[in-house]
Amino acid sequence: MSRNKKEKTVVSTKPLRTRIYIHRWFYLMILPVLVFAIIFFYLPMFGIRYAFFEYKGILEPVFVGFENFKKMFSMAGFWSAFRNTMELSIIKLIVNTGAAVIISLLLNEITGLKFKKAAQTIIYLPHFMSWVVTASVFALILSPTQEGLVNSFLTSLGFVEKGAEIYFLGSNRWWRPAYYIINIWKETGWGTIIFMATLAGINPEQYEAASIDGAGRWNKMRFITLPALANTIITVLILNLAKIMNLFESVFVLQNDAVVRQSDVLQTYIYTQTFNSGALPNYGYTTAVGLVKSLVACALVLICNYASKKVRGRGIV
Amino acid sequence: MRKFSKVLALTLVLTMVMSSVLTGCKKENGTEETQTKTQTQGATPQADQEAEIEKPKKITIMVDGTLFTKANGRDAFEAKWEELSGIDLEIIQPDHDAYYDVVGQTLASGDWPDAILLSSTFYSGYAEEGVLWDMTDFWENSELKASGRINNEAITDSLYIDGKLYGLSPARGNGCITYVKKAWLENVGLDVPTTYDEYIAMLDAFTKGDPDNNGIDGDTYGVSSAGLIGVEAPYTNYLPEFYQDAFPSFYKNADGQWVDGFSEEAMAGALGRLRDAYEKGYIDKESLTNGTSDCRNKFYEDKFGVFTYWAGTWATNMRTNLEANGFDGELIPIEPIKEVGAYLERQAPVWCVTAKAENPEGVAKYFIESMLDGGEMQQLFTYGVEGTHWSTKEEEVCGKIYEEGQFHMLENLETKGTQYTKNHIDPLLSIGNFTAFEDPGAEQVTADTRISQETFNNHSKVVQLVPSTDVMSQYNGDLTTLKREIIANVVTQGISFEDEMKRYEEEGGAEWSKAIVDSLNAK
User: Fold this and answer.
1) Which chain A residue shows the shortest CA-CA distance from B102?
2) pLDDT score of B30
């Protein structure tokens, strides 16, 4: 250990040019990745300038200063999309994480290894279905007819009258609950992996000691399992919070005209402005919306990084 | 270890570099493959010695999947076209679903093709942006216009923007016609509806009665549609009987002024009719979330009896699918009810010459105009290539037996088990007649297809082309979203039209609409 430290100190005192020469093969290895990142990640960023232009993709862009931003901030559609992005993402994050923790705890209680593996495999599977397929499956399950599984079940229980079935995906009252449930179905299983790994790392001696002290299953979960998971839960929340602005596919495939006010998020708003405007789109405007989205996402990453440092003692970036 | 690192590093870098180089080579080779064509010498039947227009040596076109694709024998098409014209042809054919993305990228790159196929929205938009060559004078003096082969001049007339023509459509745009299941109509003892009251009475009988004769009343419904309003003009085409004279977007009224039909009295009436029918269960409850394939499947499963869908080939497809499911497949394509007057025909995709074409007259004459030459070139664009797409040999194709000399389409190269129906131009929608010989495929068209198409063609009007303006680019996206939301809310969510129109005013809809109307009238 002390030798390593010594070596490290010796190397770090050498001039940069010498250090680069010493590690030239490693620099050579990283070169393709660096070139790739510059070409595909950094050069396209010059497109940000279009946020300050009126540009329809053909004629020379016309500089309009902050006009696109002024228009954006005056549009009810933009604010509705912004609000929905935050609400849908944050609620989805909390609900999905909560469900993943609960399922992880339940899975952890299963003693039969075969049954546990089978249960894990089954709950992971929906993650591998595309959102288009998921939307089609749930359109059938939630159909507002007696052919829809949910409405048929509710009718048999007497909660819904025949002929007055609930149009879950076409109702501005029911769309959001349906959206969260579909998300739980699809993503919770995958979300349990990290919690299961944490649970596997808990020393069994703690449970044994607790049993000797007379603790039941509930108390063991309350005083051993949950505290052990707490750090992981916070980490997962923080890491995912940085990604909440990237909501698109799940909303896009489940959206319809009646629920635009409840479902339109920034990415679907940009899509509509670009492809369904009935005229040549002003790419300047959609770039401006995209830029604001990126800035908010960037701010969230920094906040998360700060929160991570506070909670875990180290940042995420 | 250091030696190993060196070798590893060099290997990885070489692999990356070589893969990049080889990929580049492959692309280059691929490009060369499409770009380098042996120029066919020799005259074509269409060569007009008297023409003053210079014949181009090469024409580059950009087209969507409505022309035979590479997998469907496009090379044979290209070779035949080059043989007939004596011109080198380069075809850029992006994936059909991503066509307009690629068109935008291509135009932005500055490397424009000579001719390009555009939908009405992009046609008016690109005309406004100066991308398209003004072919007004060319058309006025063209051989095709003077030939008498054109059977529908209204199609070309509808393409003028501010008195200028920027492209030509070789065929009509087609549209949707209302099909009624004949057996259902007979089972409920009704005649073909001719008025809205009769139409509603039919929907009522289909919803409450037992039109499918399965012994159960009320397990069917009247009509279904993919959405309550279309995403592009003519918007109202899936539910024309309810919209009638209402139009939710911009149109030029009888006084020659542009107006927005959404805020007119007719729209309030239309939404009232839709809401009433939706509440009574005449309209499929899932219309908001239906895709067109959902509607077709439900129709084939005999769940509803009235379907407004594309005229022409679809009439035969629907009969085939119904019969395959064991149901009576006879459909009646009805004439528009009195209140509708005429079905709306969409604007056909338009062939345009780009403003950067070196010889625009040559491209227009030898590529666009020649599509309707009344002879071999028109046959090529309509049916494809003999031996690849069609034949007159005695043979069996997809289970059907043809005699020697009988024209028939061949088996689809990509989708085995199905026959081709047409190439780029639908023979029933073509605006040019065959004159050199009889339409070779006329006899292969089924009675269902012909009746449906003729009924539509005789009872439709082309939807107006709306010019593009800067103001429209600024506001139409938000405005369209708001309008669609209001229609859905009034029809399915129980919100009153008055309340929603108040919101329309408050959220800027009326202001955006006025700004767009003003910009259109100021042109």
Assistant:
1) A57
2) 34
Closest in A145, A163, A277 to B477, CB measured: A277
pLDDT per residue as tens digits for the range B139-172: 999 999 999 899 999 999 999 998 999 999 999 9
Q: How far apart are CA B338 and CA B197, in angstroms?
A: 10
> Can you tell me the mean pLDDT for B359-382?
96
Mean pLDDT calculated for residue range A135-143: 95
ipTM of the complex: 0.82
Q: What pTM value is reported for the model?
A: 0.83
Interface test with B, best of A56, A134, A145 (most B CBs within 10 A): A56
Domain ranges of chain A: 2-54, 77-312
The number of CA neighbours under 13 Å toward the Cβ of B495 is 17
Closest-CA residue of B relative to A22 is B2
Query: Cβ–Cβ of B281/A163 closer than 8 Å?
Result: yes
Length of chain A measured in residues: 317
Q: How far is CA A251 from CA A82, A179, A290, B144, in A?
A: 14, 8, 17, 50
DSSP H or E stretch at residue A306: helix A283-312
Peptide bond into B234 cis (omega under 30): yes
Q: Which pLDDT band, with edges at 50, 70 and 90, does A11 fall under?
A: low
Q: In B224-281, which ranges are E strands?
A: 250-252, 258-260
What architecture (CATH level 2) is domain B44-173+348-383? 3-Layer(aba) Sandwich (3.40)
User: Could you tell me which CATH number the domain at B176-345+465-521 has?
Assistant: 3.40.190.10
pLDDT tens per residue across span B13-46? 555 544 444 443 443 333 333 333 333 334 444 4
On chain A, the residues whose CB falls within 8 A of the CB of B126 are 58, 280
Q: How far is A261 from chain B (nearest CA, A)?
A: 8
Q: How far apart are CA B200 and CA B191, in angstroms?
A: 12
So what's the architecture of A77-312 in CATH? Orthogonal Bundle (1.10)
Q: pLDDT tens digits, residue range A30-87?
A: 999 999 999 998 998 888 999 999 988 787 889 999 999 999 999 989 999 999 999 9
Nearest CB neighbour to A144, from listed B104, B227, B286: B286
Q: What is the mean pLDDT of chain A?
A: 89
If 0-12 CB within 10 Å is exposed, 13-18 middle and 19+ buried, where does residue B402 land?
A: middle
Where do the structural domains in chain B lie, given as residue ranges?
44-173+348-383, 176-345+465-521
Q: Kindly list the distances between the CA atom of residue A227 and the CA atoms of A99, A102, A198, B242, B328, in Å, as whole numbers in the listed order.
A: 17, 14, 11, 62, 67
Judge whether B44-173+348-383 and B176-345+465-521 match in fold: yes
